[in-house]
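User: structure tokens for this one?
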Amino acid sequence: MKKMLITGHRGLLGSACVRHFRQAYDIRLSVGDLRDRYNAAYQIRNHKPDVVINCAAKVGGVKANRDNPVEFMLDNIRIQANMMESSHDYGVETFVHIATSCMFPRDAALPVQESSLFTGKFEDSVESYALAKIAGWRLAKAYFEQYRDRFLTVAPSNIYGPNDSYNSDAHVIPSLMRKYAKAVRDETPFEVWGIGDAIREFIYADDVASAVEAVINKWNSPEIVSIGTGVGTSIRDLVLTMIETAPLELKPAPGIVWNASQPTGIPRKVFDVSKIKSLGWEPKTTLEDGLRLTWQDFLKGKPRGM
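Assistant:
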């Protein structure tokens, strides 16, 4: 059985990859700070993996990106460079770089195609993160071109699901779940940033893991593969669906207050997923089912302050 090293295994996508691949691979898990090049090299040298899925990253929502651009750039660049250099040095067969949908231009034509990269400006609030992930893709591509290393890059849309971070700096869905549960507890209105018209594409973490498997098995190019459902959902519809799927202990729902003074990021973002679907992959989890499963995970380990 081949060995697979999964970094960031305690996080959202890393834990989904552990669940998905544990029957087909001898799963190895990284430990320690991968921003440290010596530790990154030790993980590869010690585990001797055939495949590496690099899910370790500095991630967060709009506010976190806006407030900490230095950390979002430096941490991600260091992790990516260390893991790729070590994977090359120790002969890893396949390396998967997890990029981001934020790397595509803010005003790209919809649905957003992989070829739109570099055709326009980034969303200002996530520019540092986007550039770091692009640097990772370009480094993976450089290893592919110069050494013929099989370093692949995928760019998932908004991922959600179990083992997410539900703190105040989290992504859209976990952040809204935390705020909603707090509003229910405190019997106060549920505040949502914006007016609900922003469009996002959400994908359940376990579906992303299955798409990564399709890429590992069937893709042999350094060019980016977007992973998503191809279906856009407004924040207003997301909020209403989230409330409908909330467990009974989190009802009745408080009133919703839309705060138009706060940033919401890119106004519309839906992706062309024809490339990943051409590999025979389809998402299996509806938004309703995925939210129910995520609510269950939220209630198992409520974040501090809840």
